[in-house]
Amino acid sequence: MVPMAKGLTDEQINLIALNLTGRLPRVAADIGAEDKNKCAPSSRFRAGNRSWDGWSPDLQNSRYQPRPGLKTSDIPKLKVKWAFAIGGARYGQPSPVGNRVFVGSSSGRFYALDAASGCVAWSFTSDTGIRTAPSVTRNKAAPSGYAVYFGDYDRKVYALDANSGQTLWSTQVETWPTQSLTGAPVVYKNVIYVPTTSREEAAATVPAFECCRSRGSLSAISIETGKILWKSYMIRAEPKPYRMNSVGTQLYGPAGASIWSAPTIDPKRNLAYGSTGDSFTDVPEENASDAIIAFDLKTGAMRWKTQVTANDNY
User: Fold this and answer.
1) Residue 77: which residues within 8 A CB-CB, separation 6 or more?
2) Residue 192 bridge partners (DSSP)
3) Strand order of the sheet with strand 95-97?
4) Nearest 5 degrees, angle CA 186-CA 188-CA 191?
5) Residues with Cβ within 8 Å of residue 61, at least 6 apart in sequence
6) Measuring CA to CA, how many Å separate 37 from each of 40, 44, 119, 121?
7) How far apart are the first and last CA of the chain?
8) 60: which residues sit within 8 A by CB, 6+ positions away?
9) For residue 134, what is the DSSP state?
């Protein structure tokens, strides 16, 4: 919605919301209210059995829990133990690790909650909203020995100490404004693999918008330093001007092939797999859209790709 609201004042945006919904936007959530629900100072993070410490409990993204701790017959007996109100929408799934539940929100607020009571062990505020599911692993650079990782709408990846919320590092993986981080980061052997996506195809509905110059990418980052070890684009050719639209706006291509979900790691073949979305233009894009692409874990070199749907141009 950013291109549509460009140039409008806050008052004009509020009037549009009032006209469409009959109500003015709610005042931003009182993020200070969580102080009333803080955990005791003695409460510390204990990793315990890290049975679901990211988007999936395994590198294959099976998303299957072999030891759920309850039977099918137990489900009707479940009752609410506690509830926690989050300012903004909660896009990414929470990650329960040991005695904590880690979860972010579209308001930019990230929380470490006590799994037993829902009290707030600590919280963190990023510059923009958070959509990825967090991942938690051992990290020698973290005072507690464990770190939690997630990405925000501004294409920035964060590493925080799992016990205190202390920022270990933050890394900007992309700079193009319409790009974002949606797929959860995946950690393997002290490297975090971060996929990028883009909302540029929606922005292209505005005739004056110069569509499109964003490409899906996969970055490998050191979990201890935040240094980008390599970055590979799904579409290797950089976008170039190719024609004008009906109102005289310059258009670019190729573009698209975003990675919307967490990558899958294949230790046996030393590969990372990314699944891509549609193409944003009608410029040929190397059959990288709507495809499965394999990258070398150490170098980021593209090993192979298989396109499932051709010419899926938005």
Assistant:
1) none
2) 187, 221
3) 95-97, 100-104, 109-114, 120-125
4) 85
5) 55, 261, 262, 264
6) 9, 16, 5, 9
7) 17
8) 264, 265
9) P
pLDDT tens for 35-86 read 678 998 888 999 987 678 889 988 989 999 888 888 999 999 999 999 988 8
Confidence of residue 14 (pLDDT cuts 50, 70, 90): confident
**How far apart are alpha carbons 276 and 256 in whole angstroms?**
8
What is the residue whose two structure tokens read 């973290």? Answer: 142
Size (the chain), residues: 314
Residue with tokens 């967090």: 134
Please name which of 181, 190, 188, 189 lies closest in space to residue 158, comparing C-alpha atoms.
181
State the pTM of this model. Answer: 0.88
Dist. CA 87–CA 90, nearest whole Å: 8
Q: Is the pLDDT of residue 28 over 80?
A: no
The Cα–Cα gap between 58 and 192 comes to: 14
121: DSSP letter: E
